[in-house]
Design brief:
Structural class: mainly alpha
Order of helices and strands: HHH
Largest sheet: none
Radius of gyration: 30 Å
Shape: elongated
Length: about 80
């Protein structure tokens, strides 16, 4: 009930072509095709290059809490 049938989509397409003009519609579809082609090319290049993830050191706390100081003393005693 809420969706359009094939006839509705065909009428909509014909009206769009009449309003935009054949050449304009053709150029629009050409631009869409170029965009899809560039997207696929970018995805292929991304897969070809292995990415390297480098680990970063954990940030030091701005101030040392009592629990942090106790933990440091425990490590020094070992």
């Amino acid at each position: 009930m809420g969706s359009f049938s094939l006839v509705h989509w065909l009428v909509f397409g014909v009206i769009a072509i009449l309003l935009l003009g054949g050449g304009r519609f053709s150029n629009l579809m050409g631009d869409v095709a170029k965009g899809i082609k560039n997207f696929k090319k970018g995805m292929a290049e991304e897969e070809a290059e292995p990415t390297r993830i480098e680990a970063q050191r954990a940030a030091e706390p701005a101030y040392k809490t009592d629990a942090y100081k106790a933990e440091e003393r425990a490590h020094e005693q070992r």
